[in-house]
Amino acid sequence: MRSIVAVTEEMDNAEAAAQELLDQIEAKGPGRNSCGFVFCDVEMAHGDFMAAIKKKIPFDVVGCTSIANFEAQKGAQILSAVLLVLTGDDVRFGVALTDALTPENLRQELQTAYEKTKAAAEGPGKILFLVPPFNDVIPLDGYVDTLSELSGNIPVFGGLPSSNVADGDILMYADGRAFTDRAAIVLVDGNVRPIFAVQNVLSDLSEQKHVVSKAEGNVIYTVEDMPFVEYLRHVGLLVDDLIAQGDLAVYVSTPLKVYISKNHDQDRIPVVRTIKILNPADGSGVLFGAISEGSAISLVTMKRQDIQDSCRMAIKEIRDKIEAAKKDDDYTWTTLFCVSCGGRYMVMGDDKDVEGNILVENLPRGLTLSGFYAYGEICPTVIENGRALNRVHNESIVMCAL
């Protein structure tokens, strides 16, 4: 399998933008089987753009809005659409779109979608890409955990849509349309060997770990029998100031590092959880991502240097894993798909090009680069005997080499 990355900065004319992308794809000569992932600025004419994509691009394309996109010419950029095309004669794709999702129908809808992708891909798949909706109805972990169970724990990769416009539309795309309540999944089977990297290097604010004693979904109630809000005070956070400001940007710089205790699995790599809301009435907190009872947590900070360091570590991890794999066979990796947290983009302030520049400068020879900034990142932390521990991350950078 190989990849083609097409980019357009045409913001006003949907037909022209889709044609520009098609021209770049055709110039590279796609293989017999193809599938596309598009990430675009929220200012683009969403319905018209995706309708034009469906009309002109002769294969399935899914995607979402994003704060900024990654590609190899400009690194991280806004006011653009980036289209990643996976293509080849030796791979098969299955693409499915759910109906509108609720907590009650989530499992059935995902099971139906996964069965459709298996039939189209003619196999159980080597990797599953998830494009979920952005809303508060279903925590992102619900999608990931369900798909992991249904697929026999093959790797799941992706991210939540994001937006660079306050209170603007945050949309996912599939079948030429934009949605806020549906999910798309893409199953890839055949000659594909994904490699992953996850980095969330942070500075410790409180080195001591504490155990979550009561939690449900993405709500944390108590930590070692202290209300969560009191725990934050205990470890030195100025909780009253945070609640008074009520701004997500304030919480981004002081997330939780979490060693998940779920189904008796203990990850070797911690995940990060950003605080979304604190409730002083009952002392609870709502997180971007699920938290399970028995998990060990500590409070950390995310600084600009942490972001740069973790980006360098992630791209080095990918390079090292590719080099190690090449010693065993002559398989060729062609694609780097990167998803970074929108919180990292916010914290970088005036230096928002830093991660994109690091990726471009350290991109392994022969690989394309594409991806986007998300409001939640999806990537395995550990893969053993072909079974992946698929996890939802916050404030992290995750990568998939194909």
Structure, described:
By secondary structure, this protein is an alpha+beta fold. It folds into 2 domains: 2-199 and 306-401, no CATH class; 203-301, no CATH class. The chain is built from 10 helices and 28 strands. The strands form 5 sheets. It has a 6-stranded mixed sheet with strand order 1-6-2-3-10-11. A 6-stranded mixed sheet has the order 5-4-25-24-28-13. A 6-stranded mixed sheet has the order 7-12-8-9-26-27. Helix 1 runs parallel beside helix 2 (46-56), helix 3 packs across helix 4 (140-151) and helix 8 (304-326) runs parallel beside helix 10 (354-362). The protein starts with a strand and ends with a strand. The mean pLDDT is 92.
Q: Poorly predicted ranges (pLDDT <50, ≥5 residues)?
A: none
Number of helices: 10
Write down the domain tally.
2
Task: Work out the helicity level.
Answer: 25-40%
In spatial order, strands of the major sheet run: 1-6-2-3-10-11
Main beta sheet: strand number and arrangement?
6 strands, mixed
Mean pLDDT: 92
Radius of gyration using CA atoms only: 20 Å
Total strand count, please?
A: 28
User: Distance N terminus to C terminus?
Assistant: 8 Å
* Backbone structural class: alpha+beta
* Gross geometry: globular
Tell me the fraction of residues in β-strands, as a range.
35-45%
